[in-house]
Amino acid sequence: MVDVLLLVGLAVAVFVGFNIGGSSTGVAFGPAVGSRTVSKLGAATLMSTFFLLGGWTVGRNVIKTMGGDIVPGDQFTLVTSVGVLFFVGGALLISNLFGVPASTSMTAVGAIAGLGVATDTLNETVMFEIVSWWLLAPVMAFWICAVIGRYLYPYLDAWFKLKQSDEPILKFSRVGSLPYPTVSSNATRKQVFVNVLVVAIGCYMAFSAGASNVANAVAPLVGANAINEGQGVLIAAGALALGAFTIARRTLDTVGNDLTDLPLLAALIVEVVSASLITFLSQIGIPASLAVSATMCIVGLGWGRATRTVKISDAAASAVKGPEQREKGEGAEVTVNAITAEPDDEVAKIGEEDPDELSASDLFDPSTTARVVGLWILTPSISAVTSFLLFEYVPL
Are 302 and 329 in contact (CB under 8 A)? Predict the structure, then answer.
């Protein structure tokens, strides 16, 4: 019976890792594949490698938190471990049905918290710290990107613009049967630098995904001493690689989804900021959502970009004026749709940019964003409640 439960637990863990690979690869390497810097096969290879690196190093801290700090490790029997992993897999299923990337980290923590409440073993101090970071991290993501959008984005955009090359920047030559990369003779240094930067940021995003997500697949099994940390990381990384080489090909094609249509520079800024936040949280053992941080980065970047149409002093003066004065045009207005705008090479100063030029057709779809945020709140809540009911009233 124990062997069967272990096989079931491993199967669910592989299912979770497989789906993480399918979704995370598109997020990490969508810009690189979209700009034809790397192929889908190359993206899957890099994703698998750096996910393993992130999980093997920083990811162990999150495994310890989820496998023994939220509730004591002795609460994780094989049965309870399978139950927790079932809720994580269920969250992935719900998110796929609704087309929304649910936070597996938040759902997994919700399921573990439900187990802790049911058994009266929940470490409230650790749980409070985790929830506090869940609230703080999106706020940090928003304001960091808002500052970048307002003060740095136009200058970066003016420098970052590249004429698309008619041929790949990198080519492969061979010495006998061994291939090696060479730079195209028509490529400029700037093109080479930007393309290398795009790939490097994708690898960094993959490292961050490994640091934060490996625990979601295997932490309960590690807590139950069914497998050790090293085995857990390898199982999660192997499952992710399977997803990266198979179902991720679709997400790489459709990385520009309903939420927003990001230009390459904006996507790279979002990746760097969100990956840095999640890597930091993983280092201190906090399981957190990469999807939540990335979304708040998108909104913050667009909001900051849009506020360049008005100076802070003008905005303050407008706020003091009455509604009648503002209707007469005596107050400055801020248009909150600007992330996809591409300024001229000569960047206008803050307060001098044309609001019409900074109005993109869709920074983000409010209805889609509401659905995303709603499911981010709903899935961990459902996970926690159903987990509590299961472990409280069903004899396991």
Answer: no
